[in-house]
Amino acid sequence: MPSNEEHSPRVVVGVDGSDHSRAALEWAAAEAERRGVPLRAVHALGMPLIVSAGSVPARFDPTAEISDQADEVLTKAAEHVRRVRPSVTVETETALEEPPLALLSHSRTHDVLVLGTRGLGTFASVFVGSVSIRVAAQAACPVVVVPSHGGSPATTSLGRVVVGVDGSRNARRALRLAVDLVRESGGELVVVNSWEVPYPYDPIAMTSMGYEPQEKLFDRKSEELVGEMLLDVTGRRREDLDFEVSVVRTQDSPVNALIGAAEGADAIVVGSRGRGSVRGLLLGSVSQGVLHHSEIPVVILPHHAEEE
């Protein structure tokens, strides 16, 4: 797992030569250019462990053929970045560990970790690649999962960023990250808050008894919530912000609300309530649902990620 050693921020991306990792590489290169930081491409070999009594476990050394293949993957990745983003400094790293461990161990709190929805591993998850799920849950920094559209991301811009909020501390952290991304790119922020009426009711009967209709009550509370969260995160009222903000308040499930609001957007930001574990309880249901349905990059602030 990542240490607390200080280092300069960078964008870390997992590559394996697949179309999915190339899409992630292109998005990561664009993000490195926006931030003015180096890009580190990591290729994981997943070499078997050697375990013997009384000794520290070690990994088999790769054969010359495996090393040559790794060098070829990284060389092509670096050459591609230099073609599409010549201003970006590219670093490459071959890791002996399995892909999830390699990516986690090469990223730190102030980095951004980028990977594709599939590739980088053998086993597939019911939602997206198993590597994506595990890394997105356990990283110490924001993780961006980039879908592939014929080997390229749907977009590399951040002109319109969607974020879901619900009033929780986790949502405030996600909103803060989304605000940073929008300020970084000069784009638009779309804040989504949704609700579902918790029980069936007769609106006519309740109104006749003097009760406020549930939809009207939830909408008013939603408006108050979004305004309070923007003020808390930015220190300014919505009308005084130095970037464009639009708000979507809707009676729908969080996943449907976010996917609907993301039409025509460039990225979705979510905070994960999930708690990473080796047994696979990895991400909150909203994060997994958004990853499953989104056709644009999803930026996840894991439960374990530190606040700056």
From TrEMBL:
Q: Name one Pfam family in it.
A: Usp
Which part of the chain is the UspA domain? 10-147, 160-302
Gene3D superfamilies hit by this protein: HUPs (3.40.50.620)
Q: Which residue ranges traverse the bilayer?
A: none
Q: Which InterPro entries match?
A: Rossmann-like_a/b/a_fold, Universal_stress_UspA, UspA
Family according to the record:
Belongs to the universal stress protein A family.
Name assigned to this protein: UspA domain protein
Source species, please? Nocardiopsis dassonvillei (strain ATCC 23218 / DSM 43111 / CIP 107115 / JCM 7437 / KCTC 9190 / NBRC 14626 / NCTC 10488 / NRRL B-5397 / IMRU 509)
